[in-house]
Amino acid sequence: MVMVIDSVKKYFASTMHIAPLAVFRVVFGGMMFASVIRFWLNGWIETQYILPKLFFPFYGFEWIKSLSETGMYAVFALMAIAALFVMLGLFYRFSSIAFFLLFTYVELIDKSNYLNHYYFVSIVSLLLVLVPANRYFSLDVLRKPSLLVTQIPSWMVDIFKLQLGIVYFFAGIAKLNYDWLFRAMPLAIWLPAKSNLPLVGELLNYKFTAYVFSWFGALYDILIPFFLFNKCTRNVAYIFVIIFHVATAIILPVIGMFPYIMILVTLIFFSPEFHKKLIQRIVELFSFGKKNLLNHRQDISFSFSRPLIGKVLIAALCLHFVFQLFLPFRYLLYPGNLFWTEQGYRFSWRVMLMEKGGTAFFYVKDATTGKESEVDNSHYLTHQQQKMLSTQPDMILQFAHFLAADYEKKGYVNPKVRVESFVTLNGSGSKPFINSSVDLTKVKECFASKKWVLPFEETKLGYSER
Amino acid sequence: MKLKHILTNTIQSCLITGLLVFPSCNPEENTNVNFDRAAMLENIGSNIIIPAYTDLSDNMNLLQQAANDFTTAPDNLKLTTLQTTFKNAYLSWQKCSAFEFGPAMQVSLRMSVNTFPTDTTQIQTNINSGSYNLEAANNIDARGFPALDYLLHKRIENNTDVLERFTTNPEAQAWKDYLAALVNDTKNLVDTVKNSWEPTSGNYLDTFSSNDGTDVGSSLGELVNQLNYDYEQLKNARIGIPAGKQTLGVALPEKCEAYYAGYSVELALEHINGIKNLYLGAGDADGLGLDEYLIALDAKHGSGQLSDAIKTQLDLAIAALQNVPDPLSETVVSNQTIVNTAYTEIQKGVVLLKTDMPSALSVLITYQDGDGD
Q1: Is B213-367 in the same CATH topology as B34-211?
Q2: Domain over B34-211 is classified CATH 1.20.1420.20
Q3: Which of A5, A367, B172, B325 falls 20 to 30 Å from B227 in CA-CA distance?
Q4: Which residue of chain A is at minimal alpha-carbon distance from B371?
Q5: Residue numbers in B near A117 (CB within 8 A)
């Protein structure tokens, strides 16, 4: 026991060169800047945050509201600037906090835009707030040379490796299910759709290929963190990282920036020497501010202004990672098939895991006449919102509550709302999803199991019909 | 070193288990998807879309001729001929309405030629003023087939009353002018789109056939999306809204398509048959269509094939719709049950076409690209 405590103490006292953290900051900030600009140029600020007539906030975050058109554009402009400043390491404490808050605010507005990689970005930008990533190879150091630091506690770099490792590992664990392994679902649906690709296209038509990809994908996700941690296997592992993510970018339906972000941030697993050389190269390439940025005679170690801050930080981070380890398993507390009910699905690194589609017809009943009206969903919702809502019970409930309020304003007396919805999961064929006799206005959102979601026929191995 | 050893072992055992499992897990499954998407698109383009536009264009020519004859010397016989040619053109439009991508999307064909119910006040204003730009936003519901429907028909009265508009009415010339303007406007739009598709002119057919991916913006993606959009228009605009589906069961007869001519169900039947043929890839003969594609993908619904489920459901919807007598504007008031039955069968088709089919084809129901993970 004493030995364990000693080695833990020793670990938290150990230090390493700051270069990996500095490179990580530049890479992450740069990718975020590019992502925000891309988002803007694609017109998604308008389609996702200005045009929608209503939003679907997360449970407990209903107080988060979107801003006016000007407000939203201002938020994204500030976010872009903050990301750029993070990359440059300029006014870092302020810019890193600003980026984290702005990005997370935007993601909390509407859960129909939820993506695991947005969640990942929020976490990483929060972790970046906690570490002095601007104390080397940054404009802050150029501006104020006294900030320069070369040695930092090892944990300040390791937290990013651990977080990345968790993302990969849990993404892999999530793939260990019957459909993925033994029906090659959903890849058996997605791959043939890409059969027009040059060279590999014809191969994608074969079910065998879907099995190989499924198994390779699961093994890759589970094992890659360990191979990246291990010095001997790191180089080969990184080649696999590149191959894997480029392949997903080409083959999977709409996947956006995620593969490229992963390829670049995974660089953090490499040694400080690698990152020092990388920085050296960049400095030589641009031959700017050589002296101020890198020229230092001896190592300068980072220390907290008050040791207590370091201890509090470590404690908070431990809590964060314990939370990270348990969150993906919270679904075990719910009955039924996870993919069907999606209770405990989000925030668990379940990435590209199922092919799910649905249709939902909402009906509002007027108490005085006892008659009901069908709702034209497109009158209220964007295509993205309709698509997301049709397969996610909590969004269906939110929309039902919105409809009740809206139809009451239209003059309906004590409106009751029910939904007839049909969902297909991994090629199951559409089946009734929500109990259509339940008046959803009487149902409250909570963490308890949603009994009004009809069960998917289940088998002993999971959620397959076979 | 030990860790590495464990990992190597894990990988090896996983791979071995995997290889053992692959061939044995589902012997009855298809081993590969054998389907030529480009050939399906080529079939749909050259045997369905282009013939449909050609047919419509031919009927528009006849309509223009009949309208000329009629306005030169209006009489009852010429009016009847004009009404018949109008009906033929309107019927052939029904088979084009799902193709709202590429050339049709560029000119917003569907919205321009078939926004209903038409705005009779706006039409009257245009006729009175004698100066109008049919392409202006405020005229979107004063042009196309619905406007012609209003000009050429009266619901209760007989043709004598229609004839009056073009003869003894002090504004007869203005009515004639508006009629000619509507016909020309619609014909020009149709011809533009038809020419863009034809191999001898715009050759969009080639673009359409060769864009054989499944992403947003691919031909299949657009086809499936527009087929769905159009089918939902059948459910809502053509049947549901007039039947009071969105208004607590209170029928809204004046919202019917071809409200004045009174053959809404006939048009709706032509429309759903068009959807069915598009799905089947059936022009003059049954060629490669979405049904063959679903069979190749081995897509299931319940215990059977999805391709059969969709065809059966479309047939059920057609049969139920055939039971609804025209004029629909009267049936929605007099016999709601029979309309509701048809509506329900059409709605069941929405689920299959909008949920099962895109999911099996891996096509997104969306009109914009987005991020995903």
Answers
A1: yes
A2: yes
A3: B325
A4: A256
A5: 371, 373
